[in-house]
Amino acid sequence: MGVEAKIAPSMLSSDFANLASEAQRMLDCGADWLHMDIMDGHFVPNLTIGAPVIESLRKHTKAYLDCHLMVTNPLDYVEPLGKAGASGFTFHVEVSRDNWGELVQRIKSKGMRPGVSLKPGTPIEEVYPLVEGEYPVEMVLVMTVEPGFGGQKFMPETMDKVRALRKKYPSLDIEVDGGLGPSTIDMAASAGANCIVAGSSVFGAPDSAQVISLS
Ligand SMILES: O=C(CO)[C@H](O)[C@H](O)COP(=O)(O)O
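The joint structure predicted for all components is written out below.
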């Protein structure tokens, strides 16, 4: 791979009953960040974790907790997640078209790093104002599967968005999420992604460290 990328194992694929030890195992294997999928059962048809779990995990690790908010009302999560010790707060552009300025300001005021994500069907142009605005996001998360579940097939057509973003913003953090593993990480990195989320390919591998070392 050309550029050195960060790897963030998606804890959605971990054994939630042993979250702290699973997180430590990933860090021991070389993970840079821990990716935390927060789903509300409304924006996506799945329900996962919220601020109480982030707070519990924070007691066990100093790692960067990269929170991806697949929720309809991200504003409601800013204060609780800030208190819980989240590091990154990435919301979806599809539910924040009218209030992203306020959202970004509040995320930053709680000491978190703002990011915006978009679904495979959302045009990339929708995030440009958030990268260039008065209160810019610091990362764009390009979903490479439909959000909601781990273990889906990578959608190569989403790479056009990564390429367009990288061309327009040479120093922006661009994260990709969904179906990333040994056969797709290179494609995403060559397109310009520098933060790779990988769930099932890392947790399902006999040697997680080997998959993590690919990024
Ligand atoms: O955001 C997600 C689902 O909405 C997950 O982070 C993502 O799908 C990772 O899982 P996998 O690598 O198994 O595809």
